[in-house]
Design brief:
14 strands
Length: 213
């Protein structure tokens, strides 16, 4: 399995490419900015992009979505609960003193338990609202597998909950029931920062000490 990434834009968000082998079909996760760099990443691996998945609708995870879609023809995927964020990308940009065009539809819905197939890879959607109403994690089956955690869980941290639709209590409950219930060996690739594992976060993440099990 190939997993590559770039750190995109002023928010330093992680954008990932996943494919089974060089030259295979691939998936982009969280095209936050720098559309040209994302396309170059795909070209390095001779990957034909067949899907663009967004873990949530904040600007730093969607801003390059339309550019990548136009270049590849691949559909966009997002939870319907974050559709208001997606539709208000220009308003999100203005809050940070910048500009962005509205991204046109259609958007394929991501829902809990949905499977996105890419060659022999299976990407399973896990709804984890809290950072935003429609936040999801994306689990790639394997031994033990990989979890793209978006802004739900970071190495040593969790997503902020002071933005529209955020809930600290809900976020911790989602992490407790849906993330910490998974195998400690699973590699976690977050929306910002360095990779980690579920086991490392269970033991060392200061935000999880009261809920770990």
């Amino acid at each position: 399995m190939i997993i590559d990434s770039i750190v995109a834009g002023a928010f330093h968000s992680n954008c990932y490419l996943i494919a089974e082998h060089e030259g295979d079909e691939g998936i982009i996760i969280d095209p936050g900015d720098d559309g040209d760099a994302i396309l170059q990443m795909a070209a390095r691996h001779r990957t034909r992009i067949i899907g663009i998945l967004m873990t949530h609708g904040h600007i730093d995870h969607i801003a390059a979505a339309d550019a990548v879609r136009k270049a590849t023809g691949a559909p966009l995927y997002l939870s319907p609960a974050d559709q208001p964020l997606f539709e208000n990308l220009p308003l999100q940009a203005s809050a940070f003193g910048s500009q962005a065009d509205k991204i046109p539809g259609p958007i394929e819905p991501l829902s809990d338990g949905r499977n996105i197939v890419c060659g022999q890879l299976n990407l399973r959607i896990i709804e984890t609202p809290g950072h935003s109403p429609g936040s999801v994690c994306i689990f790639v089956d394997g031994s033990p597998g990989v979890l793209f955690s978006g802004d739900t869980l970071f190495a040593g941290g969790i997503g902020r909950t002071d933005l529209w639709g955020g809930s600290y209590r809900q976020l911790l409950e989602m992490i407790r029931t849906k993330v910490l219930s998974m195998d400690d060996r699973i590699r976690v690739l977050p929306g910002h920062g360095e990779a980690t594992t579920i086991g490392d976060e269970r033991m060392n993440n200061p935000f999880l000490q009261d809920i770990r099990r």
